[in-house]
Structure formats: C-alpha cells, structure tokens
C-alpha cells in the first residue's frame, strides 16, 4: 500500500505488488504491478475492509486501469457490494510500462520479443492470483471488459480456484486460431457498420472520400509533426465501435476542412482530434501485442493486413474507402513515431510460432464457476458468432445477447449492465 485518498464519495488505496516476470520461474526477475482500490466512502473504512473483492480487467491489450474521480456507471453499482481493484495490467500504466523508451533497455529486438512473451493473458492471470493471495482474499469476482474478458476466460482455464464468479462484457474470445478468421468476421461487421453510419449521415460519405483524396494530393501534418496518410486517417473508424462515440464521428468530419467540404487545407482542430485517435504513444502494447491475443501455436503473420486483400473496399486506394476498426497493420510501425523504433520487434512478434495455449477447453467444458456474459449482436470488435461459439464451450455460462449496445456498453449503461450480469451469475443474491 503506497497511498490513501478520499474525495467525491469514494475512497482510494494505491497498491504496488512485486511479481515474477516469468511465473514459471518464481525465483527469477521480478516486476512491479500497480493496482488502485476503490470503495464507496459511504462504507466506513472498517466496514469496507470486510467487503469482498472485485478485480476489474481492462480492455486492450495495452490499456491501463481506469482513473476515476467519482463513482459512476458500473462502478457505482459494484461499490454497493464490493471493494473494486482496478489493475494496471503488466506493461501498462504504472506496471512495468513497455514502450519505445523502456523496451530497448532489454536489448535488441530478439531480447525484447522474449520479454514480451511474458505479457499475455496467462501472465496477467498469474499476476492476479499473486495479488489475490497478497491481499489475503479468497476467490474473488472477476469482471472483464473486451480484452479483459479474454483474460477472464484464461483465468477460468488456468486458475478457476481463484474465481468466485466471472462477469464478461464484449469479451468472449475465440478459443482457437487462426487469427485470420477473426478478421474475416470483423471486416464484414465493420463494413456493415460503415453502411449503417453513412445511412444516418449521407453527407459524411462524401466528406470521408474528400479527406482521403485530399491526403493523396497534399502533405498534411499532425500536431506532432508526422504526415497524416490516407490509411492512417481511416483509423478514425474506431469511433464506429460504440453507441456513445459513433455520433462524435460526424462532429469530427464536419470540422475537416478550413473552407467547406473541399476547402484548401485540413483544419488544425480536425488534425488535433485525428491525432488523439490514431496515435499509439500512450498504449504501444496495443499495436505490438494485439494479434498475439488470437495466437495459440501459430504465427499471425500480420493477419489483418493479409485478410485485407479479401475486402478491397477498405484499401486506401479504393474509390470510396471504408473506415477501419481494430486492425493492426505493418505500416503502423512506419508512420507512428511512437512505434517506429519498435518495427523490428513487431515483425518478430508477428512471425513468432511458439505462442502458448491461452485456454483449456477441457477445463472450460467442466467449469463450475458462475459466469455471465453480455454479447453485443453488432459488435465490430468482438464478433457475435465467434462469441456464441465460445459461450457454448464453457459449461454453465449464461449469455445475455443484445442489440441495444455496442462494444462500449459499459460506458452507455454500465450500472444496468453490471446489475444484470451479477443477477445472471448470482440469481438469488446469496453469494455476495
């Protein structure tokens, strides 16, 4: 414990834990993992200490735990019954951050790749178990959003004895590869979402094409100084992945030019907003490790880039190119200054063939931990059909399928989603 604070109806406690870099070698190198505890200030400190733990596993990979200044959404609902532990997964936030500054300190690209081999879901799960024991907790509730849901499935595979119940939102991972089938499904869903969006905002179809055509002809620079390419602009399609964010894409596009639909230059305001969406300076692990979350015993070989050939409407040289979703491309590491020093490392990770298994299908088939999962029917990041395939492989998993939310459901109605999943996993409310 390194600090305690109380403000705006919540109490926070900061924790730092020492864990093995390689949990298979507990006497070897150790790293620090940071987590912040949140509790409702309405619970006296002594009473809060008696509440059961809920550990939240964030989306990503490469996303640090949320920093909140008041209890709202799902956290407001959870804080009624739990102490919340918000983990900075290893490599993120204050937990042995991995980036263009720290990674070269490990040595060359080969040494860096070996190091990052310890930064997948299996290591995150064993970190959680080490932390749970250090806190003196019995089995706890695990709540996983997006990639955090992938980690939760790994938890149920590798250490189910540490889980009292599991709640998952938008995060039922395919249990086996290859990564190609993930991108075949998600390209199709992103194309459908593009069509839906342009149906709402027909003028934005022309705006997107105008920006792409402009970037083919003119050199436009982001605030950090690097050139904005047509393909990098397509990454603003990440906004299509949510109910709470999708309409902000329209506000972004209306700011594009300084003088109307086809003005002479892109506006500074537009370029600043685009930069915030496309840079990986704050989360380089997302680009480095994203495809590896689908890899088990095979190389990904830049799967999203290869599968792109089957979906030519996403190519930046298409007549009216579509906006992209969660697809990591080799050119990321040529165009984003935060990633350029990591290009050789990224290529080694893409060609790695000995990724270990993240899921134990046999163990999941006899699972006895209560599990409830929200599956979003039109999710462009985690495919509905692949999610239901996984759900059928986990004994006792309760699915709530809905078209009311997209991938950001817990930002849309987190309180309602959390309450619903908790009731599915614990219908009589006796096991809290």
TrEMBL record:
Gene3D superfamilies linked: alpha/beta hydrolase
Keyword annotations from UniProtKB, A to Z: Hydrolase
The keyword Hydrolase is annotated on this UniProt entry: yes
Recorded GO MF terms: hydrolase activity
AB hydrolase-1 domain residues: 52-198
A Pfam family matched in the record: Abhydrolase_1
Similarity section: Belongs to the peptidase S33 family.
Protein name: Alpha/beta fold hydrolase
Organism: Sinomonas flava
